[in-house]
Amino acid sequence: MITMEKEITKLSHVFPVLSPEIRGAVEFIPEIESRRIQEIRLRAGKYLSVTIFDKEYFVTKDGRLVNQETEAVPVTQADIDTTFQKAFHNSIHSFAREISQGYITISGGNRVGFCGTAVVNPAKENAVETVKHISSVNIRIAREIHGCANEIIQRVFDTGAKSLLLVGPPSSGKTTVLRDLCRQLSQNHRLSVIDERNEIAATASGIAQNEIGMHTDVFHSYTKYDGIMTAIRVMSPNVLVCDEIGSKEDFRALEYAFNSGVKLIASTHAAGYEDAKRRPVVGKLLKENLFDYVAVLGTGTLCGRLYRLIKVGEK
Are residues 257 and 195 in the same domain? Predict the structure, then answer.
């Protein structure tokens, strides 16, 4: 059943990890603007800003969005440290994997990304083991938009399950559309979601905080390879869903799933269809017809909207 669009923003879930000064300014932002916020950015020694439709605005103490920093709220190192510590529940050593990757998913599916000074391990090909002296934090606001996948559902899945690749640059709404596809497709199909970054389901204590359907099983924090292989062996999904594919291991796992008769829904970063075909792994997946359709999402005011739909194999 196709539903009307309904937006559920997760901005309020971010408030507990902000310092009092930063939280106060963000809470003052008028609702008509706050519900469109995509990111909250903190840079030590600079000024509080938010991103709306990929444009960055400074935030004043009384919640006004301005283009010049002269009136904006200054961000201190203490503000950065507060958010970093609270995002990790004041237990940094318990989240070594997340710290080495540069982000953590918090309540509501919001993602807190950060940068600073990398501490590398020469014995492991200089792999990043941890990050110190955090200088910037970027909080990406999660949102559910029930019904945002309606056009894709109608044009791709009208006759049953298909394999679909979502394409778009960062912040084009790929994960939001994936959530709604899960919610709607799970009415008639058995889904396994490989939620490596915990952004699709936003699982907390084993419970998905986002609405992803009644017949959906979530593999939280598995690598895509391990999650895909395990899902096929133990959950027998009709449809397998994962976010941000692109590695050689992703190719091996997705090829195994395809050969097992499972339909695939995945996303990848690319500027468009032609750009996606030039990517080594994604291009190979498309060439071997592992996907039936490619849906290219728009950006800016068209964020999360279907911009172009390609049936793979057709000119």
Answer: yes
Q: Is the residue at 188 inside a domain?
A: yes
Looking at the structure, do residues 66 and 155 belong to the same domain, yes or no?
no
Alpha-helical runs (H) found in the chain: 20-28, 31-34, 77-87, 96-101, 150-156, 174-185, 224-234, 248-259, 273-278, 280-287
The model's pLDDT over 87-135, given as tens digits with 9 standing for 90+, comes to 998 888 788 888 888 988 888 888 899 999 988 888 787 777 778 899 9
Q: Report the alpha-carbon distance of residue 42 to residue 55 in Å, rounded.
A: 15
Instruction: Among 97, 124, 140, identify where a domain stops.
Output: 140
Residues facing 295 on adjacent strands: 166, 309
Q: How far apart are the first and last CA of the chain?
A: 31
Distance CA 186, CA 235 (A): 14
* CA 56 to chain centroid: 19
CA distances for 226 relative to 221, 241, 251, 261, 303, angstroms = 10, 13, 12, 18, 31
Distance CA 9, CA 28 (A): 16
Q: Look at residue 97 in the predicted model and tell me its pLDDT.
A: 81
pLDDT in tens, 127-174: 777 788 999 999 999 889 999 999 999 999 999 999 999 999 988 889
pLDDT band at 178 (very low <50, low <70, confident <90, very high): very high
Could you tell me the residue range of the domain that residue 274 belongs to?
A: 147-311
Please state the domain count of the chain.
Answer: 2
